[in-house]
Amino acid sequence: MPTGTPEARGAEPTDVQTIANGAPMGWQRVVEDVVAGRGLDAEGAAAILATPVDQTLALVGAAGELRRRHFGNTVKVNYLVNLKSGLCPEDCTYCSQRLGSAAQILKYSWIDADEAVRQAELGIQGGASRVCMVASGKGPANRDVDRVAGMVGQLRERNPDVEICACLGILKAGQAEKLRDVGVDAYNHNLNTAESKYEDICTTHDFADRVATVEAAKTAGLSPCSGLIVGMGETDEQLVEAVFALRDLDADSIPVNFLMPFDGTPLEGTWELTPLKCLRILALVRLAAPASEVRMAAGREIHLRSLQPFALQVANSLFLGDYLTSEGQEAEADLAMISDAGFEVLGASRENVGANPTIRRRGVGTAVAPNA
């Protein structure tokens, strides 16, 4: 599990960043420009990240105009099914499933199709309109794609209206097309961080491999889902670089993950985020990609904490319940939060403050029911 405390996280800035010409650029003008359709540049992005503490909620409210313009009052609920956990040959420093990880997570090979469908349907019953089927590893062999195709076929037959997203790693030629043909709607492959930062977090593949997989999914007609992980030691400049790379990819959905620094990984004990900084990051993503689905994803419970409802003012999507190797907020609490904040679950007719993430020991790979 991650070590450290919320108090160990980075300090909040106290004034607006000074731009190259010596004059501060306020977030208000940046938001006005984006709302008016003039777009976001690096100078404006820097100003958003440097928004003072006492103005951050006002920034979120203003940026929320774009969220409401494109997504109204709805929140899209997504649900993860971990088809294969741990046992990964990649060395991504942030990941509890990485090569050499000592994190005490569940490890298991491929679950069978019936179990995959059963788990997915628990999420659907909880209000999820999209199921993301995930497997650890660098990328699938063709037989793995066939295996997932069988699961997708069963799920699609029983739930014809659900969206299905696959997340299987780096794709080889023809694999995206196979997934499309069996009924997969979207493909997730996160860029995770800036190209200039990438060698610091992974050496077993590179940034270009990730970009190529997202492009292959787009070319095959799959909806591109690609996001990032924040809080890994990146500078503000690198954060802007990563967000603009996602904008350039024209990702339909952008999950924003907040680092969960598991014990037994190279980033254990890394706490660089505050709740208000997380809000500024989400606002930046919304301003950079106004029409994209912005998802507050893993780590939201321990980094946004009590400010999660405010994040829904700019984010229009979240994962319900548990993540791949950690437990999330109870599904009932998620749904109550959406309702209490005045939002509605898309397609539906409806105390972790400072806590470390709890290793997932229920749901897929166990005999214990998930929290859907």
Brief descriptors of the model:
TIM Barrel, 372 residues, disordered N terminus, 10 strands, alpha/beta
Description of the structure:
Strands 1, 2, 3, 4, 5, 6, 7, 8, 9 and 10 form a ten-stranded parallel β-sheet that branches. Helix 3 (56-71) packs parallel to helix 10 (275-288) and helix 4 packs across helix 5. The longest helix has 17 residues, at 142-158. The chain has 372 residues and is α/β, with parallel strands linked by helices. It has a single domain, classed as Alpha-Beta Barrel (TIM Barrel). It has helices at 27-35, 42-49, 56-71, 113-125, 142-158, 175-181, 198-201, 207-219, 236-249, 275-288, 300-303, 308-311, 331-340; strands spanning 74-84, 130-135, 163-167, 186-188, 223-225, 228-230, 253-258, 293-296, 317-319, 344-345.
Average pLDDT confidence is 90
- The count of β-strands is 10
**Envelope shape:** globular
CATH class: Alpha Beta
CATH hierarchy: architecture: Alpha-Beta Barrel
Distance between the termini: 22 Å
What's the CATH H-level superfamily name? Aldolase class I
Helix content: 25-40%
Number of helices: 13
Q: How much is the radius of gyration in Å? A: 19 Å
Largest sheet: number of strands, sense, barrel closure: 10 strands, parallel
Count up the domains.
Answer: 1
List the helices and strands in order. HHHEHEHEHEHHEEHEHEHHEHE
List unreliable stretches of 5+ residues. Answer: 3-10, 13-24, 350-355
What is the structural class? alpha/beta
Oligomer type: single chain
What fraction of the residues are assigned to beta strands by DSSP?
A: 5-15%
